[in-house]
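Morning run. Coffee first, then this:
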Amino acid sequence: MSNQSGSLKQLALQKFKKNFWGVFSLWFIVLVGLVSVFAYVFAPDNSQYANQMHLSIHSKKPGFTVKMLTIPSGLKTQQNSFDRIFFGKKNNNTEIPIMDYRVDNNQLIYTEYASDGLVGNVKTIDLKVFPNNAVDDFINEKTFIFGTDKYGRDLLSRVLVGARISFFIGFVAVFISLIIGVFMGSVAGYFGGKIDAIIMWIINVTWSIPTLLLVIAITLALGKGFWQVFIAVGLTMWVEVARVVRGQIISAKEMQYITAARALGYNHFRVITKHILPNIMAPVIVISAANFAAAILIESGLSFLGIGAQPPMASWGAMIKDHYNYIILGKPYLALIPGLCIMSLVMAFMLIGNALRDALDVKG
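And here it is:
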């Protein structure tokens, strides 16, 4: 049995490797996963939530470049390297976009940036603010590859940091749906009778409620926030897993090897976990990939409605909500860039789901 199982796994792996779009989607998902985990390492703005606002340079086009003056606050922040890499840098310094500057009588005289051909305010600051009077070390040219949003934040950094929410909500939601769905489906399919009828009634009632409406109700009950959305999405996706597992177990429990396991005196828990579930996980894996994509879309919809991830957290759905008006104002990229990110990640999971379905169908 183990040799046969091993050969089937090898056959499925070979079939998956031959699927170009499946392999491409896998590597794309791995890339997005790495970016989401190490977002603050790759982001030009590595402050927490990439939330450095510069209203004077709001809604600038991709490739916009400006001189940025950094005025040190003198405050020391207690932050270790782990916290800085995974949760962003606590930045107490003040960043000011400027047009030009000069040093005169131990003072820095600079002109603030102003758009539309206007002249910005001229201000002065004592050089003692800068360590060793090295003012040149605190003035750098900053390029915004994706431009800036309506608050003057770096759009590329917001997109990179926003990938974390969309990617991790899929993992958490699928994890929750698998735990609940596999348990409920296993109990219903294996024992049948009244237990099956009660669980199927719960599944049908949950299934009849529109997913987005149910998520909104759970979110309002748990409160707005990061983890509340994760839990709410996961609690609405278990019914599909439960139905699939129930159907598979009803078919599998009549097989001869299950009858033999029962004859040997194995308890119900061992029969389900050791003998049935390992042989029916193929369709569960496929539906989990589809649920991953669905979770990303649901979270984006919730953020667009304003009940998902709350400001200042970066979320692709919230970015579309903030900038969808700009589609008719000549700057559609502010909404299209996060929209394309959502579309590409969802498509990758759908393609890998199709590839897994074909690969795990060893009879085909």
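The chain has two domains: 2-35+156-360, 62-148. Good start to the day.
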